[in-house]
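Sample entry (366 residues):
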Amino acid sequence: MSESSVVRDRLFSEVQRLCYAGLDEKALLREAAERMRQAVPLDGCCMHANDPTSGLITRGVLSGPGNQEVARVALERVYFEDEVTPFGWMARKGLAALSLSETTGGMLERALRYREVMVPLGFKHEVRGVFALDGELWGCISAMREPSSPDFDAREVAFFRRIAPHLAAGLKAAALRSEALGDPDGDDSPGVLILDRAGRVVQHTSAAERRLGELGHLGPGWREGDGLPTAVLSMTGALRQALGAGTDQVGSSVPRLLVRARSGRWLALHGAWTEPGPGRGSETMIIIEAAGPREVAWLKTSAYGLTKREREVVDLVVRGASTKQISQALYISEYTVQDHLSNVFEKVGERGRRALVKRLYLESLF
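Predicted structure, serialized as tokens:
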């Protein structure tokens, strides 16, 4: 075994340990990124946590040369428009890691991110990976090298594939440990934030500033768009994609994402465009509020690893449906319903329907 293989194995074990060490999302991404850079030499790296309900980025850890304007382009446009191995597509296909040269057949310029992000930042080679389980995207990575560095070889790509499911499990575990918490001052009103086309904050409520503070430390220039939380930038990009020119506004869903605040509570972000007024065009409006118990419960069922069918059974249980009614609604036998419930009880760690509903729904109220 070569020396490099020994080093990669050791660092893989370190990252694996971190994934089950009880770290929060940001700490896990930061510590894992440092080890991965030691295992696979990188000139630049972007690691993110994603909201599995929408696929949008909620947290980011960046290393290497960067440019704020390029980062905004990447978050608000390229993430949604690049058709070469999108993260969500990789998650659904079960493709943990792919090199850009392999997927483009060496024609790197086919990728929008290569033209508008990598080249401006001085990068040529890339491996992107997804931290996904059961098709749900919990995080992702873009690892890059400069033109003077060699392309990623098969063994290096294999390392990213090897570590991806553990990072997905670690991010899921971080979500599981978080519980919905109330505001310290008892004020649970939603916050409203309005940004102009340049990304500057032109209006905001006091509740919005408080919510933004829950998402991250606000720098002195946050009203000018500098240092706004990643989730806000991600929502801005999703809004442009869903409701921008050339889209069917009636058929497009209004962007919405769930993100865990620093306090541990879950917040929901909704995006919309304001109506244009005299001398003033449409602006971006983002509403930030505490996530409702049903939303948090959906995320919890995902974090507990419930299958799609198991979630359907749980949803009917919450509505008070009997085993026979669930059987009729889902066109499955009553024995199969009981089998699904047994699996759910085992995964969640509860026995009985009342305890299950309390764990997944009622505890989200406090």
